Amino acid sequence: MSQISITVDGAKLQVEADQRPTHLFAENKEIVVCKVNGVLKDLWTDLVDGDVVEGILISSPTGLEVLRHSTAHVMAQAVQEVYANTRLGIGPPIKDGFYYDFDPENTFNPDDLTKIESAMRKIIKEGQRFKRRVTTEAEALKELAHEPYKCELIGIKGPAGEEASVEVGGAELTIYDNLGRDGNPVWSDLCRGPHLPSTKHIPAFKLMRTAAAYWRGSEKNPMLQRIYGTAWPSQDELNAYLELLAEAEKRDHRRLGTELDLFSFPEEIGSGLAVFHPKGGIVRRAMEDYSRIRHEEEGYEFVYSPHLTKAALFETSGHLQWYADGMYPPMILDEEYNEDGTVKRAGQQYYMKPMNCPFHNLIYRSRGRSYRELPLRLFEFGTVYRYEKSGVLHGITRARGFTQDDAHIYCTKEQMVGELDSLLTFVLNLLRDYGLNDFYLELSTKNPEKFVGEDSDWAEATEALRKAATAQNLELVLDEGGAAFYGPKISVQAKDAIGRTWQMSTIQVDFQLPQRFELEYSATDGTRQRPVMIHRALFGSIERFFGVLTEHYSGAFPPWLAPVQAIGIPVADTFADYLGDVIQQMRKAGIRAELDSSDDRMQKKVRNAQMQKIPFMVIAGEEDQKAGAVSFRYRNGEQKNGIPIKDAIAEIKKVVQERTQV
User: Fold this and answer.
1) Would residue 225 show up in a list of annotated catalytic residues for this protein?
2) N or C: fewer beta carbons within 10 Å in the chain?
3) Which residue(s) pair with 318 in the sheet?
4) Please, how many CA atoms are within 13 Å of residue 174, restricted to the half-sphere of its CB?
5) Among the options 406, 421, 510, 624, which is catalytic?
6) pLDDT tens-digit map of 560-615
7) Of 404, 472, 508, 565, which one is the catalytic site residue?
8) Catalytic annotation present for 195
9) Starting from the edge strand earliest in sequence, which strands make up the sheet with 331-333, in order?
10) Which of these, 29, 30, 69, 37, lies nearest to 54 by C-alpha position?
11) CA 39 to chain CA centroid, nearest Å
12) Active-site residue identified among 386, 446, 466, 536
């Protein structure tokens, strides 16, 4: 047998010409896929002289995607074994798992998932090999004539869409056969791959739930049944993930919003449109008030803008060109009619605003500006409206109406570096004040196929953002080509109490809007110059940040944010008047305090306060009354007795002012 020269994980090797990557990595069962000359390939790929091979671990992000996509294939195979007349949609990997869309004869139920899981285990135990096969469009259409959704994908010319790209879209059209023990195909699916070497490389999986989903995400297409699942490199990792999901369910802001009487989504108002109840209003106001104070300290000026505008504004900004699908449809207003009903004067189209930035540009442009006014920092709690599809709505973290804490900074090019640096420091410190402390930063750079502005401006802005990020001594992740067409950005990614990552603040340099709105300032030499515009949303939206904090604290807000900071619980009715006077003193001191004067027994009142996650239970009995004192019972069950009233008030005020948790 002749030999070939290849490079494997940086080492040059002479191997037999019939060697495959699966043979090269036979000693390392953690390697399940590879890159050959930088292209992701199966381990059964043929090699030629000069190839550079890199092993990919199952635990790596790429390895996890391949694991989950392969598991999706096994699930589809199992579905068709159990329910033979089911037709296949698509099955991509997603964050922490996978899904597959099906067109079954009957809707799936939980018992069906149990049957499908059982069939999957048998397929995995058999160790069926995934074998790639190149085909032509004509051959694939003939072979998959019984799969109309697959045939539709085959007929797509050009990009098939992000999710469908797992099926088609590459240079070749391929089908993967699952081979039985005799080496013959037992099941096949249209797919680009790559896949695991065999089904035995699926260590741990679980099917999670079913959902309805439109074919390829369009409401004009048939409704299919989607099965979600997850797969992990080990059973321990799967168990840890399931425990995380259980904890996340306990912290779900939608459930806590109801239990703690914070907000609701009345059917009469519509999907994605929340109302905040008095207790939720207190939390929201505390969030906003503190943010206002900090912004004023940093030199921001507050502005206000209306909720709707003529279409011309969004034509100038470009939103109607780029973003119309995410906007509510226009209202035709100010139309005038003749007596015979004919139109005397055509009406104007008005849109509810999806963004605040065009309004701020009009404020900037309302009069001449001098370099002496820059940087100009405009800030608004601006409510916006976006037509999100019903399938993506998720409580107050993904809504149709929400309030952005929106800032736009106008500065000179010379000021940009310093402004971005101070801006990022301000953003991170403010997030820390709300109790988030675990961050990393993501820098999104220019997409060379889709951008406006000069290369030199992009390079300067990107380097300024990079320097600002590096100065924070945080992990910096590069998102190459991920910037919007109008400028690079930094995103602050924050981890919550159970380790989930949320995208919080964004800082984005914009080369487009200053030009579109013809923004200028008078420079030191008397010339008219274009300012740099920086977009900055700190929370993203008040509602979303409210939801994130609710889940981060599991509803047990620190006292400075808690709707009720202290509740009075008398040991017996005899002491209610005394404790009522204490509560009144606390209110006068600025503490949000209430007295539980219900007919419940003391133990029930304590339990109610715990369920409402109130930071301080203020208890008074005979000894407390005689001593002019109270007792504290904290949320964690600890108790402190005989605290003089003055000291009790001081302790609560101290933790509120210092924004500490109890």
Assistant:
1) no
2) N
3) none
4) 21
5) 406
6) 999 999 999 999 989 999 999 999 999 999 999 999 999 899 999 999 999 999 99
7) 404
8) no
9) 308-310, 348-352, 331-333
10) 37
11) 29
12) 386
